[in-house]
Amino acid sequence: MDKLKGFIVEEVTVSRLQAHYDNDDFTIAEYVAYCLDRVRQLNPYLEAIIETNPDAIKIAQELDINRAAVKDRSSLYGIPVLVKDNIATADAMQTTAGSWALLGSKVPRDAFVVQKLRDAGAIILGHANMSEWASSRSKTYSTGYSPRGGQVRNPFDLRKTPFGSSSGSAVAVSANITSIALGTETDTSIIGPAGVNGVVGVKPTVGLTSRSGVIPISTNLDSVGSFGRTVADAVAGLTVIAGIDVQDKFTQVSERYQPDSYTDFISTREQLKGAYFGLPMKLCWDTCPPDCKAVASAVLDVMREAGANIVEVDLPSVEERIDPSGSWNWEHGAPDKSEWTVAKIDAYNDINAYLQQLCDSNMRSLEDIVQYNSDNNGSEGAVPGTVPAFPTGQDNLLEIVQAKGIRNVTYQAALDHIRRQTRQNGIDAALSWQDPTSNQTKTEAEARHARVAEIYQQAQNNTQTPTQAPPPSYNEAVCDVFLGTTTIVEEKPRQLIPEPQSQVHQENACTARPASPRTSIYSVPSTRLTDITSMHTGATAVPTHRGDSPRSSLAFDSAPPSYYDDRSMRERSRSPDYERGPQGEQEPHPVMADNWLDRLLAAAERDGTEVRNTRR
To answer: Is residue 269 one of the residues assigned to a domain?
Structure first.
């Protein structure tokens, strides 16, 4: 990476950036310009970003001017942040969930989390690419692909999956484009991309962060979280975006509990001494691919060296909740026990409610989206087999529309079941593990666990400030941390008072949206839009509109989209042919080949398309 005014900013953290600003090593505007240059260098290969903010430099310059006058600055003051393309920004950029159907529509206001970022002095650098409609449109699909943004690539190996649906957010952080990015998760869409791309992803409990202004799937399952290259950076993002929102009832529940700062709970490895960590075995660790298990084992060894105890636990509901192969499948189980039953009913109601708030848009319902995809099959792949990224077409969207959002007995049974199985019979049960070597009696262990649970419940209900620490022998009786989930007993509860919203957030921005010119990352303008399907490499060009004029976005993939399908990725990763590709091919990936662009442009010209390279 190039230096910025003589300073190495590769892998730079949020705290280090603030130190550079304090020392006048470089300005906020200079660093933002550096990030935009980084986008222009890398995005043609990674396709992690759909659109950059044309006002980013101007905003950074204003922050530079005002910085000295702002005494109590947030840790994110002057920090560029990317947001997933389903998180609304009421500015010169588009919010489309990767779909052409929403291009040109205006959102009524910033998403609540975006307004929180702006209030903290963060700069919205752009929108990150994602799996179109957050992976809810198709049963089999290429993760990280959207018609508008192309195929997100894993920065460690362009041939490998970036996972989804928050692919672009994770990849941008991993590739040192930004220190922080926001993503969303309904099921694994934050933790999956974080793990695959080697970054930290925080998936908050539903209701800790607001979902208002976010293109949804399920009000019961959706959550907005943060990515960072370090725990400290990801937590800094979480601290800023967490908050009570009058437009999201899940953030107002009585048991909600939020400290003033999550950064205060970051500590050294000394805190690991004597702590117990539960490692779920059955259909989790037991089915983990060997290469992933090797990496995780190294981490577990470091934890043990620091004094932590790693104990084997099982989730009581694991055999009922997880597919026997150990792979992800939200359709697993009978309808009255399936996560998909809940997701598809919620999606119909929640997406329709979002669409009806938009201005300057003909898309008012999911039926409109389905029809748009059918009318624009060449780019949206409504018909199975038309677009390689969507071999099953839009089958999930069709199921969602057919369900009509009716919350019937089956829906309620499924919702109750998945909550019970993932809570009482899931993480809660795993956290109740008892050390079989402890000298405590079962009654003593249960009493100590009950005391800890009481302290935590008091904090959740805001009825009493917990002043008594867990008993000294707590670590001997109960598993403190279930790997992937932490339980923290805070010192003081936060009062449940809705935070004041700025006038900008309350105002409907549809009638007052600035008419700034939009910026495209890179483009190949053409006189007519076309699908290029004749290339044996699997490269395709599909109509995109990155800015004010029709453009063609280039997506490259030598492997069938199912190679990147989340559901079966784990089985393939255990295959001896995984490194060689699904058909065992040894030829280089089109993106890696020296002449891949020449071949693509030649195919476009053969098709009659005028091609002009405008990449800067």
So the answer is: no
Is 165 one of the annotated active-site residues of the chain? Answer: yes
Domain boundary among the residues 225, 246, 264 is at: 264
- What was the pLDDT predicted at 430? 85
Known catalytic residue at 267:
no
Let me know the angle formed at the C-alpha of 317 by 316 and 319, rounded to the nearest 5 degrees.
Answer: 105
Q: How far apart are the first and last CA of the chain?
A: 18
Q: Which two tokens stand for residue 386?
A: 């038309």
- Catalytic, out of 75, 142, 146, 165: 165
85: region left, alpha or beta (phi > 0 left; psi from -120 to 50 alpha): alpha
Domain contains 293: no
Give the closest residue to 14 by CA, choosing from 292, 240, 305.
Answer: 240
Closest by CA position to 384, among listed 141, 555, 190, 148:
141
Compute the average pLDDT of residues 365-380: 97
The one-letter amino acid at 558 = S
pLDDT tens per residue, range 518-552: 333 332 222 222 222 222 222 222 332 223 222 22
Q: Which of 74, 75, 84, 138 is catalytic?
A: 84
Weakest mean pLDDT among 62-71, 219-228, 534-543: 534-543
pLDDT of residue 400: 98
Q: Which of 189, 317, 327, 432 is catalytic?
A: 189
Q: Is the pLDDT of residue 601 over 80?
A: no
Evaluate whether 40 touches 522 at the Cβ level (below 8 Å). Answer: yes
Q: Does a structural domain hold residue 324?
A: no
> CA-CA distances (angstroms) from residue 193 to 102, 167, 184, 300, 535?
25, 6, 11, 21, 30
pLDDT of residue 600: 45
* Burial (CB count within 10 angstroms: exposed 0-12, middle 13-18, buried 19+), residue 234: buried
Token pair recorded at residue 155: 């920065």
Residue 357 lies in a domain: no
Residue 104's Cβ-count burial label (10 Å; 0-12, 13-18, 19+) is middle
Tokens of 108: 């009524």
Residue 591 pLDDT exceeds 90: no
CATH number for 157: 3.90.1300.10
Q: For the whole model, what pTM was predicted?
A: 0.77
Q: Confirm whether 203 is a catalytic residue.
A: no
Whether the pLDDT of residue 444 is over 80: the answer is: no
Please state, in angstroms and rounded to a whole number, the distance separating the CA atoms of residues 377 and 317: 41
Which residues are CB-contacts of 576 (< 8 A; sequence separation ≥ 6)? none
Of the candidates 331, 341, 273, the one whose C-alpha atom is nearest the C-alpha of residue 306 is 273
- Give the integer Cα–Cα distance in Å for 14 and 1: 18
pLDDT digits (tens, 9 = 90+) for 258-268: 999 999 999 99
Last residue of a domain, one of 264, 284, 315: 264
Domain count, the chain: 2
Determine the structural domain holding residue 538 and report its residue range: 523-606
Closest among 172, 185, 78, 166 to 124, alpha carbons compared: 78
